[in-house]
Each structure stands twice: as structure tokens, then as C-alpha cells.
Specification:
- The complex is a heterodimer of chains A (about 150) and B (about 190).
- Chain A is mainly α and about 150 residues long.
- Helices cover about 20% and strands about 5% of the residues of chain A.
- In chain A, a hairpin with a 2-residue loop joins β1 and β2.
- The N and C termini of chain A lie far apart (about 85 Å).
- Chain B is an all-alpha fold and about 190 residues long.
- Chain B is about 60% helix and about 0% strand.
- The relative contact order of chain B is 0.08.
- The interface between A and B is medium-sized, with 19 and 17 residues.
- Chain A: It holds the Pfam family NapB.
- Chain A: Keywords: Electron transport, Heme, Iron, Metal-binding, Periplasm, Signal, Transport.
- Chain A: It is found in: Periplasm.
- Chain A: This is Periplasmic nitrate reductase, electron transfer subunit.
């Protein structure tokens, strides 16, 4: 009996030891499209891309795409107190500022009711409309824009 | 009459009078200098944000804006926008500001919440002031005559060559909230 206990103890110690010996830490280092990085090093940050300052509207790729923002929006606040985007894009001021009017879908609630002002679900513009920078896509794709939108 | 005065001034008896005049003059110089120096001290950013009401609210917000940090490193500090450069206008603004010191002493605005509650009325005062002086403080640095439209964005050019060039609108009409967060803008023209 004593011998058996001893044997078990020896065997399990050996197993534990061999298992811990094998347990090397995986340092990462997987090659991705953003380059190779191991866990123990911090990769230098990518250079910041510059937002397009001001440009004519950028063609859309498909029907119902939220158009991308062709101008910079640094410092434009959209909160409970004020909505900078609407100070140009609302129907009231669009003619004067030359901005595109928000479309009527922006007045509709989720269950299809049309409100007299911007619907809460369309209030936070940058949730759907984003600025652009000149950044080459990381992944190729074969998407073809819809022809009827005149975007080639 | 004048002649009598002159002979009196030339006589040794008038020494005391001369002395008093000299003291008065020197005192005047010192007082004037001191006064203006004091005025200068209260005209610095450090002074403006030496009370927490300013430091924790408007200063914190302003640090994220173009007038705090930009590509050229030229800054606009609090007095650049809030205190006129001309001496007489400056004094008038400083006297008006004494009311704000009173507000500080009596603890009118102690917390962020109270600050935000008062923001609309404070902002309206600044808008009104800037509207009346045709945004003089902005124009001290930004001279319309020297704006190069070929360097500005499309939207800037459109707005600046219409409403600004014709004098119909002034900077503050379109650039509200340039340095701080805005109050509730309900009912404010163009918002």
C-alpha cells in the first residue's frame, strides 16, 4: 500500500512537471494585415489620417447608403443642447448654407410615423454619417457600386 | 495776475508748493503704473482661471478647441476674446466684471450644475456684446481683409463671401460656441 502511494506520488509529480515544462507562453506574432506584433511589444501607432477638409459630395455606392461626410467636423457638437449639423443641414437653413437637406426619412420614427422635426433615432448624425480620409483599403473587394447612382 | 503768480513761484517761499507738486507728480506716475500693472495682471489667463468656476468649466472645454492648440501654435487666451484692447473699453469691461467677482464672493456659481444653469444668460451677454462691437475681439486677430479665400474650405468661402463680406452678419452670428460648450440653444437665432 505504502509502495503504491509512493508510486502514484512519483508518477503524478512527473506528469505535473512535464506539463508545466511544455506550457510555454504563446507570444502571439501572428501575421495580420496590420503587420506582425508579439504580446510583449507595443507596436508604434499608425500615423493619423487626415480628414478631408472640404469637398463636393462624394458619390454613393448603393441606394439607402447614408452619404459620407465630405467635410471635416472637428469640434461640431451634437448633444442635448445643440446640434451643429442641423444648423446647416436642417430644412430651415439648408438653402442659406448650401448644405444638402436631410431627407424625409430623418423625420420618421421606427414605426413609420412622421414627426414635425428630426426623429430621435436620426438625431446623432455621426452614428451613420462618417468623415473620410485618404486611406487605401486593407482588404481588396469586388463590390460594384449600383450603376444608377452614377458612381463608377 | 499771472505775473504775480509767476513771481511767487520763482520766490523761495514757493518751495513747499513745488515740493507738493513734485510728490504729486511722482505719486501719480507710481499710482498710474501700479494701476495699469494691476490691470495687466488681471488680464492674464492665469488670473482668469485662478477661480475654480472658470478652470473646471470653460477652461477645461476650451482646451479641446482650436484656440488652445493648433498647427501654428498661436493661441487666443481668455482676455483676447473677452477683454477689449482699447483702454477706455477695457476699463468699462473691468468695472462690469466686478459684478462677476461679487458673484464669486457670494457663491452664485459653486458647482458645475449651477454653472450650466447660468450658462445661457452668461453666453447671451457675450453674444450681445460681440454683436454690438461687430466681433471686435475676433477681428483683432482675424482680419477679413487678409483672409485668403483660396486657402479656405468651400463652405467657409461661401459663407464668408456672402453674409460676412456684405456686413449683414458678424463672426459671432455664425461662430457661436467657438471656445466653449453651448447652453441649450432653443430659440437662439439660427439654431
Amino acid at each position: 500500500m505504502k509502495l503504491l502511494t509512493l508510486a502514484i506520488a512519483v508518477v503524478s509529480t512527473v506528469i505535473v512537471l512535464s506539463v508545466t515544462a511544455q506550457e510555454t507562453v504563446n507570444p502571439g506574432g501572428l501575421a495580420t494585415i496590420r503587420g506582425v506584433a508579439t504580446i510583449d511589444e507595443t507596436r508604434p501607432a499608425e500615423k493619423l489620417k487626415r480628414v478631408i477638409k472640404d469637398k463636393n459630395p462624394i458619390a454613393r455606392n448603393y441606394v439607402h447608403q447614408p452619404p459620407v461626410v465630405p467635410h471635416q467636423i472637428r469640434g461640431y457638437r451634437v448633444d442635448l443642447n445643440s446640434n451643429k449639423c442641423l444648423s446647416c443641414h436642417s430644412w430651415k437653413y439648408a438653402a442659406e448654407t448650401g448644405a444638402t437637406k436631410i431627407s424625409l426619412t430623418h423625420f420618421e420614427t421606427r414605426d413609420g410615423k412622421t414627426l414635425s422635426d428630426v426623429s430621435p433615432r436620426r438625431y446623432f448624425c455621426s452614428q451613420c454619417h462618417v468623415t473620410q480620409a485618404d486611406a487605401a483599403p486593407l482588404v481588396d473587394n469586388t463590390f460594384e457600386p449600383v450603376e444608377s447612382l452614377g458612381n463608377e | 495776475m499771472l505775473k504775480n503768480l509767476w513771481t511767487f513761484l520763482k520766490s523761495p517761499n514757493s518751495a513747499a508748493l513745488w515740493f507738493i507738486l513734485a510728490i504729486g507728480f511722482a505719486g501719480g506716475v507710481i499710482f498710474w503704473g501700479g494701476f495699469n500693472t494691476a490691470l495687466e495682471v488681471t488680464n492674464t489667463e492665469e488670473f482668469c482661471i485662478s477661480c475654480h468656476e472658470m478652470e473646471n468649466n470653460v477652461y477645461e472645454e476650451y482646451r479641446e478647441t482650436i484656440h488652445y492648440a493648433n498647427r501654428s501654435g498661436v493661441r487666443a487666451t481668455c482676455p483676447d476674446c473677452h477683454v477689449p484692447k482699447k483702454w477706455t473699453d477695457k476699463i468699462v469691461r473691468k468695472i462690469a466684471a466686478s459684478k462677476e467677482v461679487w458673484g464669486k464672493l457670494t457663491g452664485l456659481i459653486d458647482t458645475r450644475e449651477e454653472f450650466v444653469n447660468h450658462r445661457r444668460s452668461m453666453a447671451e451677454r457675450e453674444w450681445k456684446r460681440m454683436k454690438e462691437n461687430d466681433s471686435l475681439e475676433c477681428r483683432n486677430c482675424h482680419n477679413f481683409e487678409y483672409m485668403d479665400f483660396s486657402e479656405q474650405g468651400n463652405r467657409s468661402v461661401k459663407m464668408h463671401s456672402d453674409a460676412l463680406a456684405s456686413g449683414e452678419k458678424t463672426c459671432i452670428d455664425c461662430h457661436k460656441g467657438i471656445a466653449h460648450e453651448l447652453p441649450d440653444m432653443k430659440g437662439v437665432e439660427h439654431w
